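To: structure subgroup
Subject: Chain for Friday's discussion

All,

I'm putting the inputs and outputs inline so they're searchable in the archive.
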Amino acid sequence: MLLPFVTAPKPAVVRKIGTPASGIIEVEQRGGLTVGESATVSELLALEDSAFVKGAQIADAIAKEEQISLSEAYGIIESAISGRALEEQAQAIRLRHAGQIEQVARVFAAAGQRNMEASVTAIIRSRLQRPEWSMDDTRKMDRVLFNGLWQLVLEEQAAEDLQVEPVTEEELGKPRAAAGKGRKPNG
């Protein structure tokens, strides 16, 4: 069933992904992920351990041992993982807890990989009509196809983040009311 659009959505563009060596597939580029695709990603990741929770647990242990706030400890972990420079005191804390921080870095890296795999799996299930496609199937894919589909996911997510231009009065077919004028008080 179609919605009664004032302005119809842009038609999807077919995109070819792959090489002759990997095989080439055609996938629709729609300008964003669908609700179902986003839900599939969430469902696929729901059973996974949370990288944030693991980071918070280790930050809590560091905060207690170092007698600093939880947010300071988590900030040290984030900075260490991202490679940002730390102040001398924070650097000393980082070095004392290098093993724990490395553990969080591995969890974050694994979570990032799982997110990529879940996103590519969701696109394959939805746009290539392969509802039974699994994360394990995605892990067995040729790297060129995987990277191409992941790039599509990133572009679709970026397109969702673009500012939407407001609908013009002409598009709506009626003039807009002036802000703050002509309103009745509510009380």
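Points worth raising on Friday:
The radius of gyration is 24 Å.
The mean pLDDT is 86.

D.
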